[in-house]
Amino acid sequence: MAGDLLDNQGRGDVRWSLPPIHPEGRKYGLIALAVSLFFLIGLDWEIVGWPLLALSAGIFAFFRDPERVVPQDDSAILSPADGQVTMIAEVEPPRELVIDDGSGIGGLSSDTVTRVSIFLSVFDVHINRTPIAGTVQRVVYIPGSFADAGLDKASEENERQHILVERSDGTKVGFTQIAGLVARRIVPFVKPGDTLGAGQRVGLIRFGSRVDVYLPAGTGSDVLLGQRVVAGETVIGRVGARKLLEGVSQ
């Protein structure tokens, strides 16, 4: 049950179950299912019906929305997405998260920070979650192209949406949902002024995409290139902590 307290002492009650399907995807899955049944039962065209039936199952799987056990640790910055870490770089934050937007609430500093880029394939869960608890200060949508989300230039050229969250102690974390070759729509669940708990759902990107996270100044990555991360569960950094990590691919 959502909200249950689970810990590393074995306390809690966990049972395996099929993950629910997010409402945003149910209509697409049901449409594909109805069309497949029409070809299978109505027209007896199995050569078309069976592939469409498999497609409907794939759509339902794409929009699955599993529960996550979110670490309750104020220093932790959580992964906002499921996927693979494909880039870790020192960069300047996006202009839209830095400039004065007229709200009277400051954005990120223009100083160089660590950016962790997470690529989501069509097989990953595409529900995105907030890396920290706090208040949503900005949600900025930017139209753009649909180049390969794995390219570095996608951060500046592709259709994207920036989100800035600020904790009660003033710590700010910005992250960006980026559309890709297949992804064609970013769906937000939050707006400026919303108060979020760590790991709370903030939106989704329909079909293969990428999410960039801009860690606070002085914070290094706790994940490695090539590592698989889980939204709302994997700690990708700890506020103010920077250490050298090494990994071996095997």
UniProtKB/TrEMBL annotation:
Keywords: Cell membrane, Decarboxylase, Lipid biosynthesis, Lipid metabolism, Lyase, Membrane, Phospholipid biosynthesis, Phospholipid metabolism, Pyruvate, Zymogen
Positions where Pyruvic acid (Ser) occurs in the chain: 209
Post-translational modification, as annotated: Is synthesized initially as an inactive proenzyme. Formation of the active enzyme involves a self-maturation process in which the active site pyruvoyl group is generated from an internal serine residue via an autocatalytic post-translational modification. Two non-identical subunits are generated from the proenzyme in this reaction, and the pyruvate is formed at the N-terminus of the alpha chain, which is derived from the carboxyl end of the proenzyme.
Annotated site, Cleavage (non-hydrolytic), chain positions: 208-209
Co-factor binding details: Binds 1 pyruvoyl group covalently per subunit.
Keyword Cell cycle among record annotations: no
EC number, UniProt record: 4.1.1.65
PANTHER family: ARCHAETIDYLSERINE DECARBOXYLASE PROENZYME-RELATED
Family: Belongs to the phosphatidylserine decarboxylase family. PSD-A subfamily.
UniProt protein name: Phosphatidylserine decarboxylase proenzyme
Gene name tied to this protein: psd
